[in-house]
Write a structure and sequence with these properties.
- The chain is of the alpha/beta class.
- The protein has eleven helices and 14 strands.
- It has two domains: 2-222, P-loop containing nucleotide triphosphate hydrolases (Rossmann fold), CATH 3.40.50.300; 226-308, Alpha-Beta Plaits.
- Helix 4 runs antiparallel to helix 5 (138-151) and helix 5 runs parallel beside helix 6.
- 33% of the residues are buried.
Length: 312
């Protein structure tokens, strides 16, 4: 289990904000990642996903807080670090290695490295062992590093945009390969992606981070059940946002077209229906939201993207 408690990472000096304050790449984040799950990291560009991953595998020292892997503080703890493999979103550091060279390199650091797994996956993807990775395509580099990560046989595998550069057919092959390997040994997979549909398909838990702050985390079913789109029709006088908020409902977004009001409300369907029961409407319809819609509405509620939209 990975326990992240009030974890913060602030960059000073060169990373100062406009007000002269340190840049808060990760700001007071607390989540728990249970054993054997597939956990998705969602967030806007520059939200802090990659920084948090580097903190989790002990590359970055936290400004404050705690990150424990199986009860051990990860920073400067070889045992904790040895239980996790991090697939970076960059592969330039491997340019001069061949795949066989990478195998030997990581085998020297990970006693659990499995030649059987390595050879089986290499045979499945038919990648050359003696070519430098600098000669590989972007997708082949991704495949290579994922194979190394799986071959290290760690309890935890972290993938930062690991499917980037793969064509749709290969994405499916690699995803199935990863899931099969991780499930067989009941390991934990943590993956970040800008492809929300991919997270929805692959993961059973997820979190959303924005400007270093945690917005939500939990099981996907619980997250999805906490938001609804509501359509209300009332003749003569459409339902206003103020009316909905006076009923104790948390309205993230609302719009009116003629006599129809459409609103995105945070809360379970039962809670929303209970609040709406005091309203007299001609039509009341409640629609579940997709994870992508939740992502968009949560960030829009925080002003994300508004700076790019012209006022007129």
């Amino acid at each position: 289990m990975i326990e992240i408690t009030n974890a913060s990472m602030h960059f000073g000096a060169k990373g100062l904000m406009a007000k002269g304050e340190p840049f808060r790449a990760v700001d007071d984040v607390s989540i728990t990642i249970p054993d054997g799950c597939i956990y998705g990291f969602l967030g806007s560009n520059g939200a802090g996903k990659s920084t948090l991953m580097r903190m989790m595998c002990g590359i970055y020292k936290m400004t404050s807080g705690s990150i424990k892997i199986d009860g051990r503080e990860v920073y400067d703890d070889e045992t904790a670090k040895g239980s996790i493999f991090f697939v970076n979103d960059e592969t330039v550091q491997y340019a001069n290695f061949t795949l066989d060279g990478l195998r030997k390199y990581y085998k020297s650091y990970y006693p659990s490295f499995s030649d059987d797994v390595f050879n089986r996956l290499i045979g499945r993807l038919k990648l050359p062992l003696d070519k430098r990775l600098s000669e590989f395509s972007k997708g082949m580099k991704r495949q290579s590093v994922v194979i190394i990560g799986l071959s290290c046989m760690t309890r935890y595998l972290m993938l930062d945009e690991a499917f980037d550069g793969l064509d749709p057919a290969m994405r499916k092959v690699i995803k199935n390969m990863i899931v099969d390997e991780m499930l067989d040994r009941q390991a934990t997979l943590i993956v970040s992606s800008h492809n929300i549909a991919e997270i929805n398909e692959l993961c059973d838990r997820a979190m959303l981070i924005h400007k270093g702050k945690l917005i939500f985390s939990g099981e996907l079913d619980e997250i999805s059940s906490g938001f609804r789109k509501v359509q209300l029709a009332r003749k003569n006088l459409p339902v206003s946002r103020e009316e909905l908020e006076q009923l104790g409902l948390t309205v993230m977004q609302s719009s009116i077209s003629g006599s129809v009001t459409q609103a995105v409300i945070r809360g379970t369907e039962d809670k929303i229906m209970s609040g709406l029961s005091a309203l007299k409407t001609d039509i009341t319809e409640i629609i579940p939201l997709t994870l992508e819609e939740i992502f968009i509405y949560e960030l829009e509620a925080r002003g994300y993207g508004s700076e790019y939209v012209p006022e007129n």
